[in-house]
Amino acid sequence: MATTVIPFGPQHPVLPEPVHLTLKVEDEIVKEAIPALGYVHRGLEKLADIRDYHQMITVCERVCGICSMIHAVCYSQAIEELMDIEIPDRAALLRVIWSELHRTHSHLLWLGLFADAFGFESLFMQFWKIRERIMDINEATTGSRVIVSVNVIGGVRADLSPDQIRWILSEIDIVEKEVRQLQDTIMNDYTVKARTCGVGTLTKEQAYELGAAGPTLRGSGVAQDMRMLGYGGYSQIDFEPIVETSGDCWARSTVRFRECLQSMDLVRQAISKLPEGDIRVKVKGNPPEGEAYARVEQPRGECVYYIKGNGTKHLDRLRIRTPTFANIPPLLAMMPECELADVPVIILSIDPCISCTER
Amino acid sequence: MLFTPTVVKNLLKKPATRNYPFVVREGFPMYRGELTINIDDCIFCGSCSRKCPSQCITVDKQAGTWQCDPHACVYCGYCRDACPTKCLDMKDVHRAPMTEKITWIEQGTPPKPKKKKAAAPKKEAEAPVAEAKVEKAEEAKPAKKAAPKKKAAKKK
Ligand code: SF4
Ligand code: SF4
Fold first, then answer.
1. B2 reaches A (C-beta below 8 A)
2. Which of A58, A123, A157 sits opposite B53 (nearest CB)?
3. What b/e readout covers A95-125, taking b as 16+ CB neighbours within 10 angstroms?
4. Using CB atoms within 10 A as the burial measure, which of A99, A188, B69, B88 is most buried?
């Protein structure tokens, strides 16, 4: 059978962001996929030369809108480690609350997009409708819906009042109830299973060797979650990473779905442990010469920030490794022997965020 | 099939969306929306322009102008937090759409340097440094500033 080459992207209805894959196809069966990245390179790391280290937080938040809070947490943690700053307990737990809210809304967004990828429009709308409540919490407590800009070096800028906490808890109960109603659909529905079960399988060994991150890794049966490191406020919270073993698109969506529910539980835990006290410490001076490294768990997986200070207010080097970047080799390993019609579903199953891959 | 109960419920409920341009949701009180300035309270200290991550504010102490590029603003609110006289504020509404790029310039009364020295003799130690900084910044500013004015003149 002769090989046909089909270009997928850079503009494709299923993906809002530009990524190009050259698919080598034999009779509707994909044999090989070759990626081409670099359509949206923004050079954000270089901006560290002209923005000072406080202003870089807003830049880091814009690496990816959906996990903006967690990017900022990672960057502030790296700087705080370099400058030897201890943030107050309350600030650490407030960061956990907002991080988990971000994880929930990111997963709900993705679950909707995934439903859209296999053509289940009303499920897509349903997930996005639920997500709106989380966005309202963000807007009411931080001042913005997506890019919350609530982190500063040394703590957080906004505090939660008792009223707000009560309101968040009640909203989360509603969200949880609504999400649970969709559990059967996303996990057991015949049409959903037909499109996802056994599609784009990644074995445990492959996932580990190719360096997959986040739900892609946990969907293949590796229990690895950066939150277990206990960074920030996570040391005070107990949870177990969520693992599925089948390694296909169904497993990855199930991991995300269950993480949604888990995140809401973590928000409740963090709220119950929220101590009174300061939310921010004053930061003086510039980062000293030296290097620091921070790892956090984003909705999509492990994110790594490396910074090198040189004693001035500008950083010598800022390096960001985002989870989608790590998930591209596993994505290519999922492709061979899949059907052409499954390609969009497989690509979406890793939750690609192209702008954070290219920063 | 498992989704059918949800579909039926949704059909019987009120719509989840708003009839947007006619029904607009109120912003939450903390929402960081349109930036406003009360220029009468501004002391032209330049804190806002130094903190702004998108570097869209230019403060000229001599001329008493406060200038902002609203299209570059990212609504982070750092300038509002940094302002010592609290003359910057953010309304809980979105900035209205514009069809033309503008530079937003506010003309205030620059503080008189003599008065300041008499009022705050203690600050003299700091003042030369601050002034030197302002002067340095000034060298670069006139070129930038002259440009928008010329453009505006041409348009008119
Ligand atoms: S809100 Fe942020 S971006 Fe806008 S002018 Fe103020 S500091 Fe600059
Ligand atoms: S920080 Fe406030 S007082 Fe100072 S220049 Fe800006 S607006 Fe004026």
1. yes
2. A58
3. bbbbbbbbbbbbbbbbbbbbbbbbebeebbb
4. A99
- Are B6 and A185 a contacting pair at CB < 8 A? yes
Of A277, A138, A94, nearest to B30 by C-alpha is A138
Could you write out the DSSP letters of every residue in A152-199?
ETTEES----HHHHHHHHHHHHHHHHHHHHTHHHHHH-HHHHHHHTTS
- What whole-number distance in Å separates Cα of residue A146 and Cα of residue A139? 8
pTM of the model: 0.83
The whole-angstrom separation of Cα A183 and Cα A46 is 43
CB contact under 8 A, A55 and B28: no
What are the tokens at B24?
């607009």
Q: How far apart are CA A35 and CA A68, in angstroms?
A: 26
Of B1, B2, B76, the CB nearest to A149: B76
Q: What is the DSSP string of B32-79?
A: ---EEE-GGG-----HHHHH-TT--EEEETTTTEEEE-TTT-----HH
Within 8 A by CB and 6+ apart from A176, the residues are: A261, A264
A140 CB-near residues (< 8 Å, 6+ apart):
A164, A167, B28, B29, B30
**CA B133/CA B130 separation, integer angstroms:** 5
Q: Is the sign of the CA dihedral A336, A339, A343, A346 positive or negative?
A: negative
**Closest chain B C-alpha to A186 CA, distance in angstroms:** 9
The model's pLDDT over A80-101, given as tens digits with 9 standing for 90+, comes to 888 888 888 888 888 889 989 9
- pLDDT, residue B125, reads 43
Tokens encoding A129: 């409708």
d(CA A352, CA A71): 16
Joined together, the tokens standing for residue B37 give 């300035």
- pLDDT (tens digit per residue) in A337-350: 888 888 888 888 88
In 3D, which of A299, A334, A335 has the Cα closest to residue A68? Answer: A299
Per-residue confidence (pLDDT) for residue A119, from 0 to 100: 79
Task: Check residue B88 and give its pLDDT.
Answer: 86
Amino acid identity, residue A347? Answer: I
The interface predicted TM-score (ipTM) is 0.77
- DSSP 8-state code for residue B5: H
Preceding peptide of A287 cis, ω within 30°: no
Model confidence pLDDT, tens digit, residues A288-339: 888 888 888 888 888 899 988 888 888 888 888 888 888 888 888 888 888 8
What is the average pLDDT value for chain A, to the nearest integer?
Answer: 86
Helix then strand then coil, % of chain B, to nearest 5: 40, 10, 50
DSSP bridge partners of A35: A21
CA B7 to each of CA A111, A115, A185, A255, B1: distance values in angstroms, whole numbers, following the listed order = 18, 15, 12, 25, 10
Q: How far apart, in Å, are the Cα atoms of A155 and each of A72, A94, A139, B17? A: 11, 9, 19, 36
